[in-house]
Specification:
7-stranded parallel β-sheet; 16% strand; 211 residues; 7 helices; Rossmann fold; alpha/beta
């Protein structure tokens, strides 16, 4: 392992609703092979029965228990995990710990699919929910991080798909056909690795497409 790899931040992967850390099997192996220290945790419960703000406390507790206080880290959140991660960053002090933040197909502005359940976590992911309005009211704070949002226009879980877009940070479109494939498609993996390998600086907003 070279010096550059040794200086890399550990990476924490946060899964989505009805998932476990197992969904990151391919991504985790991909990143470890390229020199990153990769961590995952299981959010409990994972079915929306608990509010995303409560799940974010599990992330905060995991970070406190796993990493030294001075250790910076990089955070990758998939789907609901991206919103949980945002709450940790924006409301629970994660802004002081996280350097690079990546969301993958996360419903930053909600998804109509969430109307299918009255579970608290699902209600919070509905379009224009009080929870999302609150988070988006000061989303500018994410500009303090190296932030990347990755999404596909063909997503049937995030409806409308462009709910995964953000007005801050970088945006990368990976045009895969299905929501779960965002964690296994070779283009997604390459985009995540490139974002994690970036030297820390605050880039101007730009839009790219990974073909």
């Amino acid at each position: 392992m070279n010096t550059e790899n040794q200086q890399r931040n550990p990476v924490l992967l946060i899964h989505g609703i009805d998932d476990t850390e197992a969904v990151f099997h391919k991504m985790r192996a991909y990143l470890i092979q390229r020199g990153w220290s990769v961590h995952t945790l299981n959010l409990v419960p994972n079915n929306g029965d608990l509010g995303l703000d409560e799940l974010a406390k599990q992330v905060a507790d995991y970070v406190s228990a796993t990493f030294a206080p001075e250790q910076r880290l990089d955070l990758v959140g998939f789907s609901m995990g991206g919103i949980v991660s945002r709450y940790y960053i924006q409301r629970l002090g994660g802004i002081n710990r996280v350097q690079r933040f990546i969301t993958i197909s996360s419903p930053h502005y909600g998804t109509v699919v969430a109307y299918g359940s009255w579970r608290p976590g699902c209600v919070q992911m509905r379009p224009d929910s009080i929870f999302l309005q609150d988070l988006n009211s000061d989303d500018v704070i994410l500009g303090q991080l190296d932030f990347t949002s990755i999404w596909t226009p063909y997503d049937l879980m995030i409806v409308p798909a462009n709910s995964s877009q953000m007005s801050v940070g970088r945006e990368v479109i990976v045009p895969v056909a299905l929501h779960p494939w965002m964690l296994t498609d070779s283009r997604s993996l390459a985009v995540v690795a490139a974002a994690l390998a970036k030297r820390i600086k605050l880039p101007l907003r730009n839009k790219t497409s990974s073909q």
